[in-house]
Structure formats: C-alpha cells, structure tokens
Amino acid sequence: MKDIKYSLLELATLRKNGNASEAISRATNGAKYIDNLGFTRLWLAEHHNMEFIASSATSVLIGHIASQTKNIRVGSGGIMLPNHSPLVIAEQFGTLETLFPNRIDLGLGRAPGTDQVTAMALRRNNLNTAFYFKDDVLALQRYLSPDNASAKVRAFPAEGLEIPIWILGSSTDSAFLAAELGLPYAFAAHFAPAMLKAASEIYRSNFKPSAQLQSPYFMVCVNIIAADSDEEAAILSTSLQNLFAGIITNRRMPLSPPTEKPIYHGIPEIEQAVLSMTSSTYFGAPTKLAQELNELIEDLQIQEIMSTNYIYDDEKRMKSFDLIRQTFEIINQKQ
C-alpha cells in the first residue's frame, strides 16, 4: 500500500461581499474540520498588498490556527525570507514551536509575495536581498542549531528546536537549492506549473542527504475541486478560474460564486492564459481525482500532495475536504 500524504494550502481568501474577519474565521473553521480527517499539515501563504487575501501576517495566523487545532501540523507556505531578518523568523517560529511542540513547519520562499513597489517597502528599498536567499537559509539554520550556543547573536527560544525547514519554489533554482541543502522541497504547481517536471528531476538527481533529511521528499501543491459528481466539480471550479482571470488581467477580485461559464469565455487570449496558469488543477468525484492524481504521483515520485480549495460555498468546501480524504484513501489502496 502507498502512503501518500495530503495537506492544505490556505490563503484566507476573502469572498465576495466578505471581509478579512470572515476570511480568517473561514480558514480557522476549515482547519478544525480537516484536523479530524487525516490531513497532514495546513500551510499559510505570505502575500502583501493584496486586498482579498488575509494572510499577510503569516506567523500571527499560524499561531491562531495552531491554537484552534490539536493534531495537524501548521506552518508557512511560505515565509518569503528575503522580506525578513533570519533572526526575527527564528524567534517567531521558535516561539510557535515552543507553544505548539512538534506541530510547526517553516516553509521558505525567495519571491516577495507581492509587486515590486511593495517589495521595496517591505525590504526598505533593498531589492538585492533575494540574491542572498541561500545565505539567509543557512543563517536561519544556524540560529535554530544547538551549535549556535557560543555565538554572539542567538535566537531565543528557537535555539536547539527541531523545526522542519522546507524550500518552496516555482522554478528550477529552488530545486537545486533544496537538493544541495538536503531539505524537503515543495513546488507551487497550483499557479506556476510550467517547470514542475524539470524541477522534480533536478531535485531528485542532485539531492544530498542532510541531518534533517536522508532521502528526497517532494511535495506538490495543486488545485483540487472535489464534489459528488464530475459535473458539479466542473461548475464549482469556475470560482477558481474566474479568480485567476482577475490576476491575469490585473483586475483582482474576491472569491465569487460559481458561474455557468467562466467570465472570460470566448476571449481566446485570457482562456489560454488561465488554462496555462491552472493546468495543475484537478476537479471531479473521488474516482476521477484518484486516477488523475495517482498518475501525477507515480510520474514525479511525489510523497505528498498539498491542495488549495477555492470553493465559495462553506458547505461544499467542507464536503470537498471529505471527498479529498476519500480520494487519497483510494490512492493509498493502490498497489
């Protein structure tokens, strides 16, 4: 039997006519629900200057959701490390790990999680920080290590805590780094699927064992819309498609109810752009999902699938979580 783990990426997305308070409450309720369904982890993504995403203060939200759940691992997918001092991130996640032992993950990304103007505001006009991503990861590892006890600068209460560090990416650069450092690697195919296969091959062929990880561990994030029927899932998926159309056309919008057809239907340029950006999207009933996801898992030797859940209706969103669990039960029964 297989043991493919399944997890959730949460952005605390605002719904149409909703607000940030509702979005955070919705994220928290979803976390409580999947905590009992066998989901391995829930990660929150760092984004800035985005009106319809409420996860900008990522560490704060991780603490809130961890306090409302019991078993599921909670972490960052990711902390955009060039926006922050490694010392501050060590202190924040050391505090989280102290509060919630053995339940905190630290996923790290290189991108700003926003536009260039906002990145300048975050980084105080120093956009060169992205070029020092590897150095910052190494510095963060030092702060977490018990070997840092004799250093002049130490991170409390982080020092000596075993907080799993992950490298996140949407390109081959991150695959090389994760392999070199011997860290687990998570690929953002849910919005940038183009280099997925190349990144997986680079990561596995270049992996060097480390104190944290002896063999490659590859997680892929995709969009999953699960429903009782393939037809219902196709309709529900229009909420996701319309959301991405807003990103592509620079007309960002909140998560909206499904539509009979995508709002850009009949506009070839937008249709193609959305299709390209969301090609790692899987929708349907569990049987269909299991077959399609199993092919992806076997092709890329994936250990874990993380999914987004852009479903507008609360009841259907929770139902989708149940069906995702059923999907992976089918996958893991396959020989």
From TrEMBL:
Q: Which Gene3D superfamilies match?
A: Luciferase-like domain
Tell me which species this is from.
Sphingobacterium cellulitidis
Q: Which GO terms describe its molecular function?
A: oxidoreductase activity, acting on paired donors, with incorporation or reduction of molecular oxygen
Luciferase-like domain segment(s): 15-234
Family under the similarity heading = To bacterial alkanal monooxygenase alpha and beta chains.
Q: What is this protein called?
A: Luciferase-like monooxygenase
User: Which Pfam families does UniProt cross-reference here?
Assistant: Bac_luciferase
The record's GO CC annotations read: cytosol
InterPro entries from the entry? Bact_Lucif_Oxidored, CmoO-like, Luciferase-like_dom, Luciferase-like_sf
